[in-house]
Target: ErfK/YbiS/YcfS/YnhG family protein
Amino acid sequence: MRKGYIAVLVLIPVIIIGMLNLKNVARGVQDASAYAKNKVELVFVKPDNEWKNNEEPSNRVHLRSVKPDIPLDELLKDKNIDNKDSFNIFIDLDKRTLFFKYNEEIIKQYVISAGKKSEEGKKEKEGDYKTPVGNFFICQKEVYNPPKTYLGSRWMMLSYPGLEAAEEGLKKEMINKEVYNMIKESYQDKTMPPQTTKLGSYIGIHGGARPDYPRDWTAGCIGMYNQDVEEIYKYVKNGTRVVIQ
Model:
């Protein structure tokens, strides 16, 4: 009889653990269903300085939303919008989000990546791997077919260095008055500013993003998925306003 009691006492924890496991399995199925419904992608990422060749992904998981959305073409068609002169781009670095706008109306938003060291502060010089903030415009457009490994399928160059960077650079004697005036004139004429200064060069919006990349992976540009940058590429032109803050 005593052995029977002992057997029952041993079985009780086993039964409880089994019930908990079944509950966790059910919860896992429910979570998986939610992920499938919302198309949330689990991506293993780690800081830039921890990546090594042929290394296994870290255990830190980054959630990137890839919810199904309506193509930009359809959104603009539904709103009967086709005036390229009124399109502009606003980029919120804190939210890592690009807002494609018609005048002040947000038409669609996209997940973006910034320069590898953008979290460390304001861009100051060439090679600091930081994304600049300020008011810019698109001054060059390129299609890459086949896509380039780093730049992806589309390139839209921004008018950096802009007025803010030029004024700061002049104060710090990183540029002289002549270069400052050249940058100022390019801003007024909507042309490409000098790209050989200590302030930095070739900052743009481009494709090339991949799910296995860390959150920020560029040298200072705005990085996007090819399919996203291709959507907005056709609706912007040289002179389209871009604000980054």
